[in-house]
């Protein structure tokens, strides 16, 4: 149980285009989903927290107009990287949590984005 | 504030060696503590967790004990295998932060046969 999927696993896009990454909780309803970014050989950086049906809360320094997050249902959250630039190339990981507080998070397998 | 400090890697061991990866934390109150493992090109998998002081989390031969007096959660394994090669992240959650995970920098472990 507690499986989180991400799609696509890898994507290559050209500068200036937009890319959408999906995060789904397959066998549970996620009240909260988190989006992280990971640079090579570094830790995960929290980008934003999203709750179903409400606006995402972005971490300081993350451009909300560039990284659009939509949490449309209890099993789906999407991250859209708009007007992508090569510096947006990274590994994006989502996680999902059931309930509130200190409950553990379940992580997706990640999406490797390369902007050319 | 809340933070996690991990020993810097990389750590290189021979198969069957003993492993310790140190982790200390700063947090007010009583956080829950986690170890996650990340294999190359993959997302994170929960390895083990502990939710209160003196709890011991264990899984796949790995262990970590929640030590409130030393604010530590060191990861140990008695005999590592080549398949344990991965990046290991220590993390904490405080309930009042609505489930936000605070991660350490990660420690790369490489095990040679």
Descriptive overview:
The complex is a heterodimer of chains A (116) and B (113). Chain A has 116 residues and is mostly beta strands. Helices cover 0% and strands 53% of the residues of chain A. Chain A contains no helices and eleven strands. In chain A, strand 7 and strand 8 (76-81) form a beta hairpin. Chain A starts with a strand and ends with a strand. In chain B, a hairpin with a 7-residue loop joins strand 10 and strand 11 (101-103). By secondary structure, chain B is mainly β. The interface between A and B is medium-sized, with 25 and 26 residues.
List the helices and strands and how they pair.
The complex is a heterodimer of chains A (116) and B (113).
Chain A: E1 4-7, E2 10-13, E3 19-25, E4 32-38, E5 44-51, E6 57-58, E7 67-73, E8 76-81, E9 90-97, E10 105-107, E11 111-115
Parallel strand pairs in A: 2-11
Antiparallel strand pairs in A: 1-3, 3-8, 4-5, 4-9, 5-6, 7-8, 9-10, 9-11
Chain B: E1 3-6, E2 11-14, E3 19-21, E4 23-26, E5 32-38, E6 44-50, E7 56-59, E8 62-65, E9 75-77, E10 86-93, E11 101-103, E12 107-112
Parallel strand pairs in B: 2-12
Antiparallel strand pairs in B: 1-4, 3-9, 5-6, 5-10, 7-8, 8-9, 10-11, 10-12
Instruction: Determine Rg of chain A (CA atoms, Å).
Output: 13 Å
Secondary-structure-derived class of chain B: mainly beta
Strand percentage of chain A, roughly?
Answer: over 45%
Q: Largest chain-chain contact? A: A-B, 25 and 26 residues
Anisotropy-based shape of chain A: globular
The quaternary organization reads as heterodimer
**Whole-number mean pLDDT of chain B:** 91
Helix content of chain A: under 10%
Share of helix among residues of chain B? under 10%
What proportion of the residues of chain B form beta strands (DSSP E)? over 45%
Unreliable residue stretches of chain A:
none
Distance between the termini of chain B: 41 Å
Report on the biggest sheet of chain A: 7 strands, mixed
